[in-house]
Amino acid sequence: QVQLVESGGGLVQPGGSLRLSCRGSGYIFSLAGMAWYRQVPGGARELVAHITSGGTTTYADFVKGRFTISRDNGKNSVFLRMNSLKPEDTAHYYCHRRGTDYWGKGTLVTVSS
């Protein structure tokens, strides 16, 4: 069955960096558009970035210039490099296979001094 497993979250100071990873299985990863979303407690899940099967990327305005989404089809993985992190980036980050109901369980990113 389809599985998405995130890793790489943690505690980081403001201005710091983290790299999130998501490994997909149970489908042809290279043909799938993939995305990262985030959600704070009590808030709506919001799109952070997505990448098409061909490698075209799109970003939410609030992360442009700070975050980079990429993929490695050989590793069935999508990544989110997060630089210049701010306290308001604190959230659970979720991996999503575009156009489906498949989501990972999420990884928590906390930006705090």
Layout of helices and strands:
Layout: E1 3-7, E2 10-12, E3 18-25, E4 34-39, E5 46-51, E6 57-59, E7 67-72, E8 77-82, E9 91-97, E10 107-111
Parallel strand pairs: 2-10
Antiparallel strand pairs: 1-3, 3-8, 4-5, 4-9, 5-6, 7-8, 9-10
Describe, in plain words, how this protein is organized in 3D:
This protein is mostly beta strands and 113 residues long. Strand 4 (34-39) and strand 5 form a beta hairpin. The model has no long low-confidence stretch (mean pLDDT 97). It is built from no helices and ten strands. The chain starts with a strand and ends with a strand.
Keywords:
four-stranded antiparallel beta sheet; single chain; globular; 0% helix; mainly beta; six-stranded mixed beta sheet; 113 residues
Task: Give a brief outline of the structure.
This protein is mainly β and 113 residues long.
Mind describing the biggest β-sheet? 6 strands, mixed
Question: Could you spell the SSE succession in H and E letters?
Answer: EEEEEEEEEE
| Class based on secondary structure composition and strand pairing | mainly beta
Radius of gyration: 13 Å
Count of beta strands = 10
